[in-house]
Amino acid sequence: MFSSDAADPTTVLTKSERTRAALRGIALRSFRERGYDATTIRLIAQEADVSVGTTHYHFASKNHLVQELYLDVQERHRDAAEPALAASTDLIDRLAIVYRTGLDQLTPFHAFAPEFLSAAVSPRSPINPLSPESAPALQVIEGLFREAVDGAAGAPLPDEFRASLPDALVLGHLLLALFWVYDRSPGQQRTRTLLDRGLRLLRLALPLTRLPLLRTPLRELLDLVASVKA
Amino acid sequence: MFSSDAADPTTVLTKSERTRAALRGIALRSFRERGYDATTIRLIAQEADVSVGTTHYHFASKNHLVQELYLDVQERHRDAAEPALAASTDLIDRLAIVYRTGLDQLTPFHAFAPEFLSAAVSPRSPINPLSPESAPALQVIEGLFREAVDGAAGAPLPDEFRASLPDALVLGHLLLALFWVYDRSPGQQRTRTLLDRGLRLLRLALPLTRLPLLRTPLRELLDLVASVKA
């Protein structure tokens, strides 16, 4: 199937690449429109008008296509966050941008979120967000939070806090997404409120890291949160 | 099948009750030994030497048997925690007792924890710990945390903190159990360490609730945590 009748070997490559891109596009649309459970390799092959074997050649399983979805969502997240980050140097405002644009990307999937969660939550699942298979997508979001922290001007937090902060923020993002799956309020407004309250609290707490009395408990708290993700 | 040959109607009831108890016992043992996925109504019926129909008469589905398991685990938890609670009036020590005896009850299930989590994590699942179906088991653990807080002598925390504390503590218990599912360290030692660090932090933070400067942010933090569970 991947031997071509064309003489030019670049044509061969291009055809395979085109097939792969078509399968990927159909799968991403299917996850958005049908969810996780109803999306099957067979259905994707059918809609791309190629064989199941060809589909498996490009994507060994449905979960490999979920990884494409994760990457797609995180790249859209980065594309939405970065222009907004360029406009602010306040740390809390920058974190608000990353968290809010992250929720925006999840929104279209809310109806299917429980089935994605069931499939992804097991530590043995290859589509668990913390699995080795999901590392490329997780790195995008880790990079975004590091960028949000590093690009803040006049950051009020001591260096000892700066190091574990991105890990703690990524864990916060995963827990916020977990809360969002359970959120039945219109437009998941409760999740937005929870985020706003969390950010307000962080704004109150960060200057306290300079008080000697509080430095130890706050440092403990941050280390505790960061250690959970590690 | 439920009409008896015996004349005495109490015999009928007793036989039905005995069948129910036998099915329940076999199911609880099966969940402990085989896990969630491999336990089926058919298998339980077979081992109890009754028909699948009889089994369904007593327990409409496998998930009804999981609710029996939840209750069994929480009642064992209460039985383990209460004698220890009687021996201490320090708030943090009392919380340590409830959290530690809770983890003790989970320990035998660790090998099967990922499959229980996958089945229970969806907000649509009837065995989700926060579902209406799971309310009786959740009430046992809520009662335990309330007891731990209310029975503490010379509690250092103002009344405004006392009210939302049990809800926040139950949420902490659920999140600790989530972390425990992911914990691959021998004997889930990392979960115990996380718990110890969390309790140490709580011991540092509680006296701070009396400082006017910190009362607002700490109250905010507690309300935030409690609002997640509500």
Structure report:
The structure is a homodimer of 230-residue chains. By secondary structure, chain A is mostly helical. Chain A has a single domain, classed as Orthogonal Bundle (Tetracycline Repressor, domain 2). Helix content of chain A is 70%, strand content 0%. Chain A has eleven helices and no strands. The longest helix of chain A has 26 residues. Chain A is elongated. The interface between A and B is medium-sized, with 33 and 33 residues.
Topology:
2 copies of one chain form a homodimer.
Chain A: H1 9-34, H2 41-48, H3 52-58, H4 62-85, H5 91-106, H6 113-120, H7 135-150, H8 159-162, H9 165-182, H10 189-205, H11 212-229
